[in-house]
Amino acid sequence: MALIDVVKWENPGEMFVWKFPSSELSTMTQVIVHESQYAILFKNGQRFDVLGPGRHTLSTQNIPLLSKLVNLPFGGKSPFAAEVWFVNRAIPLNLKFGTPTPLQLEDPVYQIVVPVRAFGQFGLQIEDPALFVQKLIGANAAMHEAGLVDHFKGILVSRLKSRIAQVIVREKVGVLEIETMLDELSRSLELAFAPDYAEYGLGMRAFRIMSITVPEDDSSVLELKKAKAAAARRRIEGTNYAQERGFDALQLSAGNEGAGGAFASIGTGLGMGHSMGQMGQQLMGQQFQAGIAPPPVPPASPFAAAPPPFAPPALQFHIHMNGQQMGPYGLDVLRQGVQTGQFTAQSPVWRQGMPGWIPAGQVPDLAFLFAPPPGGPPPFGL
Questions:
Q1: What is the pTM of this model?
Q2: What are the beta bridge partners of residue 83?
Q3: Residues near 359 by Cβ (< 8 Å), separated by ≥ 6?
Q4: How far apart are CA 145 and CA 37, in angstroms?
Q5: Can you tell me the distance from the alpha carbon of 253 to that of 126, in angstroms, rounded to the nearest whole number?
Q6: pLDDT tens profile 291-316
Q7: Pairing, β 113-126 against β 202-213
């Protein structure tokens, strides 16, 4: 085989590393290294020089280790066998990455497991070309961009998953809010990756998580968004989850009976309070058929506390709960709502003549409903 006079790499393209196909060199061979390249000389797997940009003659005078490793005499044209590897320093900064499968993570706020995916890009810089070739290439004659990304995919995805899970589970950041932390996550991961890539003579640059997403049509994601919307509504209305579930049960009961609202099933059995001796039986038969039992009616006793005085029957209020306006209802109906915990001092109310909706506890005509009975324990069952 003829000795090679000139060794060079003209069109790297997306290739990071390339080995010159012939190893038949001589002390007169010219190695041309372009500005964006390194050339590395190997003999029997041992590196004996790294050449930067320029034109280099493979002579014992220019490369002192050549005579030691190849045992060449000084002067003249002496053939020898060696490998020339070229390394492309112009590595792009838009190498793509992504989680191949979703991470199944539990939202720390609503305890709903949802699938989470992450995507982004990064750049690499070859800081030690000889170490890079020795560690990554082996028997391969070349490495493209896709091959390099695939080689590090396991390390990258593993650390990415671990960091996202740590933020969601340990730091209690909701799945739907984690995208507000992309910059912080990217910086912390770039630092975490540094030792892994330095082992191969590489430095990571401009690591960026571009998005952390959940599939919009996934049933668990829809459930999570619904729970978040319900929580926001409860904050606005001043109610809590237990009260809302009670409202839902009353509405279901009223719907089954053909009634017009959640409190309709209460008012139906009260008879507006004119017959106190029959109230317990009416409530047991007609109210709270959604599974919310009314309080038991105590037996007659001379020690029972007298009930609060009734307001005039004509005094009625509209109430706002569970995102709906209902009523109007008389005070006997509202009293039952207080006893079951479904109507509270924070429930918004309105009646004719009031300037707007205000909490029930701030209405003088309703304040007595939320006040403890004067003196002694309350009647049994209340």
A1: 0.50
A2: 42
A3: 238, 345, 346, 347, 348, 349
A4: 16
A5: 71
A6: 434 444 444 444 444 455 544 445 88
A7: antiparallel
Domains assigned to the chain? 6-88 (no CATH), 95-219 (3.30.479.30), 238-299+308-370 (no CATH)
pLDDT in tens, 219-242: 776 777 776 666 666 566 555 544
Token duo for residue 322: 């569970």
Distance, in Å, from the CA atom of 93 to the CA atom of 71, rounded to the nearest integer, reads: 43
3-state secondary structure the chain: CCCCCEEECCCCCCEEEEECCCCEEECCCEEEECCCEEEEEEECCEEEEEECCEEEECCCCCCHHHHHHHCCCCCCCCEEECEEEEEECCCCCCEEEECCCCEEEECCCCCCEEEEEEEEEEEEEECCHHHHHHHHCCCCCEEEHHHHHHHHHHHHHHHHHHHHHHHHHHCCCCCCCHHHHHHHHHHHHHHHHHHHHHCCCEEEEEEEEEEEECCCCCHHHHHHHHHHHHHHHHHHHCCCHHHHHHHHHHHHHHHHHCCCCCCHHHHHHHHHHCCHHHHHHHHHHHCCCCCCCCCCCCCCCCCCCCCCCCCCCCCEEEEEECCEEEEEEEHHHHHHHHHCCCCCCCCEEECCCCCCCEEHHHCHHHHHHHCCCCCCCCCCCC
Inter-axis angle of helices 182-198 and 145-165, to 10 degrees? 130
Residue 338 CA neighbour count, 13 Å, CB half? 19
Give the type of residue at 343: F
The span from the first CA to the last CA of the chain, in angstroms, equals 106
Using omega within 30 degrees of 0 as the cis cutoff, is the peptide bond preceding 328 cis? Answer: yes
